[in-house]
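Here we describe the complex-level prediction in full. Unlike the single-chain runs in Section 2.1, the two entities below were treated as one system.
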Amino acid sequence: MTVDAAALRVAAQAARTRVAGRRGRRSRLSSVGLHAALVLAALIAVFPVFWVLVTSFKPDSRAVEATPKLVDHSSLDNYADVLSGAKGDFLAWFGNSVLIALLTTVIAVFLSATTGYAVSRFRFPGLRPLMLSFLVMQMFPFAVLIVPLYNILIAIGLQGTSIGLVLVYCTTAVPFCTYMLKGYFDTIPSDIDEAGRMDGLSPFGVFWRLVLPLSTPGLAVTAFYSFLTAWGEVAFASAFLSASDQSKTLAVGLQVFVQQNRTEWGHLAAASILVAIPAVLVFYLVQRFLVTGLASGSVKG
Amino acid sequence: MAEVAYVNASRIFSGNPPVRAVDQLQLDVADGEFLVLVGPSGSGKSTALRMLAGLEDVDEGAIEIGGKDVTNVPPKGRDIAMVFQSYALYPHMTVAENMGFALKLRGVAKAQIKEQVAEAAKMLDLTKYLDRKPKALSGGQRQRVAMGRAIVREPSVFLMDEPLSNLDAKLRVETRANIAALQQRLGTTTIYVTHDQVEAMTMGHRVAVLKDGLLQQCDTPRALYDHPANAFVAGFIGSPAMNLKTVPLTAEGAKLDGIVVPLSRAALDKASGESLGEVTFGIRPEALALVSSEEQGMNMTVELVEELGADALVHGAVKIGEGTERFVVRVDGRTPPTLGQQVKVAVRDTTEIHLFHPESGDRLEA
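The structure predicted for the assembly as a whole is:
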């Protein structure tokens, strides 16, 4: 045993030096070039967001200039205007968006988790057509769906209501999330389900007490996806919500800053920053669950 | 504590044609008995165990635990615990939570769960690891946690599905003895599935040999070794495997390379009754011996010598009828013959000869 261990250590050492050698072989120049390219790419990615932030502090008249400056009569006036409701009921829009996005997240994750578990673990008639229909549904262009969905919502009396819009968002989120979660559940060994059954859990108990806790990374991803689906969407929201200012979502409301003849760039930028904050927050909350390997160690490793 | 019975239980997997994974299994396990189900892969041994666990449907027949028909009872109502090949520990729970989970579901008081878990942990030498998650344990420790999870519940039957196959060879031998001792101590009826005939022979009070879903024989390890019911059991039990060769039959016995090995009257009568010209002749490697060139025996050319330390296995070719057949002989490890050497091999004792029907494979004598 000791001989083996020693030999292993030597081999590991050799492997390490080899890797180090390969790393060291990159010349200083190529290293600089590589980092410069990465920094440049990062700057290009961040710049638009940064410029929106810069613009959000400028008055509308100074927002677009031939020689732009970082600070140009900058103040917090735009934010004050947007939040005070002088340009439209921003806080009501915000509330609507939060409500609709959260409802979409909860309903979509619940439905797709139960569906995903069923298609992952059970064989039943209609399984393949079901999965196929989920796939086909994701191929439809959104614009084609607006009119038929509008008619359906009117027929069931949900046109103009938040819950109607939530259901519409679920139709896009659930198929995608079901695929995601099915894939995730497939990675959880079914031995764990069976061990749970032997320990005295009902089939739903297995799902609720074993499979769901083990799927937090997958659930986090799908929750985030569902939230974003609802948060930033414009076309469905402007078609299916009632026209009153009170019932708009943020994405729809932002359009008041873009009028036919002029655009209030400063206010638009400020509102956009405010819209982005919750999305960033949700991502921040969710990202710590986005670690894989939670299921490791359950079976032989 | 309970006895277990398979009453002509079958499991049929749909397909074309349907596969009878377990076919009319009739098996009674006594209270407190350690029964091993053994067979090659695809023999239906795991399926038979899962039927008892309630994880697999029973398509025909019934299954009884403690005299009660449980054929349609879900797993949680059967009062059984199972150790999985993969252990199937809950990765999000600590060792203590893993072991106490079943009790928690039953609504046992927290203090009592803790006490029972501590007791089982002590038995399995896991006390130090109770607060760890499964991923921070070694393979052997995980295996013990899986055992602990089963023990804590004090079920009436233990089911074990190849629980040792993921351990390294040394640990496997150790754990094998530990499980057997633990079962002895707890006295719980245990059904143990393995493909390893050494495990089967060393652990089981009785061993049931399965092949293609059919029960071949169920008996004590000794009886399986001494009186295999058919050629399959004869070849499966024992390591290295029994030499099984089809040899021509004469009035006195079996003809092997010029010599005639005398056979029992009963066997010969049975063979002539069925007017067999040939017979499947079985002799274990340890029942053959090298003899000096003057004595009577089969001539064998040594083709391979496997030295195991205590003894050596000599593989060699023997002429039978027109062709040659390979025989394995177990010899003293200190003086093995060399490669290519001509040796003489004799049957140690004619009572150690097994005869089987050349087609059906059934044993030809009592």
